[in-house]
Amino acid sequence: MTVAAPRALAVLLLPLVSTLTMALMTSAHAVASTSTLSWSTSTPYLHPDTPIGLQGSKAAGASLDVELRTPAGGGWRSVADACAGAVADATSWSCSIPAPNGEWHKGDHHLRLTQTATDGARVVQTGHVVVMPPAAKKPLQPLVTPPKPDPTTPPPA
Fold it and tell me: What span, in angstroms and rounded, lies between the C-alpha atoms of 56 and 39?
C-alpha cells in the first residue's frame, strides 16, 4: 500500500464520518432539549481559501451565537457577525465565515452554536469542519508508445 492510499481513503471517508458525527450530535441535543436548533455545514471539509458555510433553524424568539476555534489556537471567538438570521425574530439562519487573511489554517476548526431563549434556556451544539490542502495536480502527460522494432533489422551490438 502506498503512502497516498491511506490519504485518499481518508479524503473519501471524511465527509461520511463528519456527516454521521453531525447527525449524532444533533440528535443527542434534540432529545435533551425542547428548544429547536438544527444546523449543517455546506461541506465538512474545505480548502484553505473557502468560506465556512453553515445553515440551520432555531426556535422563534431565540438568539443564536456561533463561535469558532481554529487549530492556530486563541480560544473561541464569535463569528455571529458573519451570520444572517441569528437575531431573535428569525427562525432560519445561515453563515458564510470568510477565512481570516484570505486563508484558513489546515486542520480541525471547531464550531460551537449557542441558542438562548427569551427565558434564558440555552441549547449548545458543537461540530467541526476540516481544512485540507488542495490535492496536488500534475499535468497529464501524453501516453507515448515506443516504436516497434523492425524484425528485419538485427539488434544493436
Answer: 4
